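#lab-general

N.A. 3:47 PM
ok so I finally got the sequence cleaned up, no stray characters, all 118 residues accounted for. can someone with queue access submit it? mine expired

B.Y. 3:52 PM
send it over

N.A. 3:53 PM
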Amino acid sequence: MAWGQNRLFLFLTAALLLLNGGSAARTEALVGGWRPIKNISDPHVQEIGEFAVTEHNKQATASLKFQSVVSGETQVVSGTNYRLVVVAEDGGVSNKYEAVVWEKPWMGFRNLTSFTRV
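B.Y. 4:20 PM
back already:
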């Protein structure tokens, strides 16, 4: 291959990678896309679930008791959104709730965005 053809090939390869977002080599979460949480028993995930129930109790003057997170997804934003299904006890009866928590750990920030029974 001549030098000019070699440069053209490299330029086109680089352009394709840029247009494709480098997705062939990309392993990190896409900004804005929801991705399943692989290890739902991770202590941090369980902590986020417990935070959601505690915040809901404060906002709704309720007395739910957190039991566990049973499934969830994350979304990369300015920080991370956690969309979790948590089990909480309400007067001796266990129910499932979907909670969305926005976290910016570098700022010590967490916010309960929504909390609904499912």
